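Page 37, continued from 36.
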């Protein structure tokens, strides 16, 4: 997989994190990996991003993914590991999606989640994709980023973003209209440069 390990990213810590994910994934019963079925379940997965607590959405996410052959695990990253997510296809043909909740905010979690889903849908023939701020942004990563952004804020809604009021009420109203949390909308607006990175962060949910 494409990474740029440095002294800031401990390879052993990252490997330990990956191994713990393997151990937990082995305990999950899942159907055979079905990328097309996964794509059909995307609307159901997107609905979960409106729920405020991981206790509310994680069980449903695990259920949906297991039904399409993806074992979903959350593993806290150890010191020195800067990974936020990884997808991999095992020798048995089953897929695993592992996340770390590293940034503890809803906008980062859901963007990373659908980025990983993008790899499983778009790049299903590859073995592993490891995400973090050490990963080189090649074409495959750009495609997964675009996939995630379009799931969270579909283009028909994205085109209207410059015109919506940039205050609390305007953002909350539009988030409700398009079916995502206000924090996700804030994160995408910050990324697009529509509001500053210091603006409206109080609307993001902290896990």
């Amino acid at each position: 997989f494409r990474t740029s390990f440095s002294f800031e990213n401990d390879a052993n810590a990252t490997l330990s994190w990956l191994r713990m994910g393997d151990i937990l994934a082995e305990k999950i019963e899942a159907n055979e990996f079905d990328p097309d079925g996964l794509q059909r379940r995307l609307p159901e997965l997107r609905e979960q991003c409106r729920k405020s607590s991981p206790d509310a959405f994680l069980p449903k996410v695990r259920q949906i993914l297991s039904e399409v052959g993806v074992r979903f695990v959350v593993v806290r990253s150890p010191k020195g590991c800067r990974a936020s997510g990884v997808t991999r296809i095992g020798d048995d043909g089953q897929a695993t999606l592992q996340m770390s909740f590293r940034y503890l905010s809803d906008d980062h979690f859901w963007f990373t989640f659908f980025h990983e889903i993008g790899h499983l849908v778009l790049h299903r023939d590859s073995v592993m994709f490891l995400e973090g701020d050490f990963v080189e942004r090649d074409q495959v990563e750009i495609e997964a980023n675009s996939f995630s952004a379009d799931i969270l804020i579909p283009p028909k809604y994205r085109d209207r973003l410059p015109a919506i009021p940039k205050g609390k009420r305007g953002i909350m109203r539009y988030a409700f209209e398009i079916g995502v949390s206000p924090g996700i909308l804030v994160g995408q607006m910050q990324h697009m440069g529509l509001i500053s990175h210091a603006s409206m962060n109080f609307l993001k949910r902290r896990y």
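The longest helix spans residues 106-122. Flag for discussion at group meeting. Residues 1-7 have pLDDT under 50 and may be disordered.
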